[in-house]
Amino acid sequence: MPGPDLILLGDSHTGALHQAAVARGMDARLLYINGNFWHENRMRWHPRMGIGAKYRPRLQRQIRDLAQSLGGTVFPADTPVLASIGYHLGRLVPRLARLGHTPDPLHAETDDRLFLSQAFLDAYILSQRGNLIDLLASAARVAPVVVIAPPMIQTDPVALYVANRITEVLMARGVRVFDPRREPDWAGQPLPEALRAPDQVHGNAAYGEAVLARLFDRGLLPGAA
Prior knowledge:
Elements: E1 6-10, H1 14-23, E2 28-32, H2 35-39, E3 44-46, E4 50-52, H3 57-69, E5 81-84, H4 89-97, E6 101-102, H5 105-110, E7 114-115, H6 118-140, E8 145-148, H7 157-172, E9 176-178, H8 205-217
């Protein structure tokens, strides 16, 4: 029996991608897990199912059910996977910035912020996202995984810098990443209103379609654009 066209896994940012895939007529399987659980940084690579969350039985069942429907793993070797995990900036950045710290030297100079070195930032990212980064690096070795960074809603310098550094860390580990902050027509500005969901936090279906079209065009998803 043939598998699905696409697997989507991650937090609420999968919604726009899933809507766009369904609108294209794709068989898109979705593993949605609330960002709070990803933020815990406790889910790990599982050599059989792909993701292990044994410490939370309900999550483990959710993962196992999808894995079984896909032949045993949420990362089948021949099925593209789009993953919206590893960032979760709304939970990561405030803890870093609330006392006036920034890893951006220009931001520190112009806004009289307390500067954090890249070494400190890397240590912070790995302490908060290290297990997810390891999971994605392991998954990328066995399946065609692309991580989709969250859209840029606000041009907060700390969030921009942290997101960019997470992208660099993932890419250094051999993970393919689509980061909207690096798209020439989206870089340096908030996501256009026409591409935003009503909650003003996520992208909408039109944004999801724009992302899918670019992935198809670059050969990161098989098939025609």
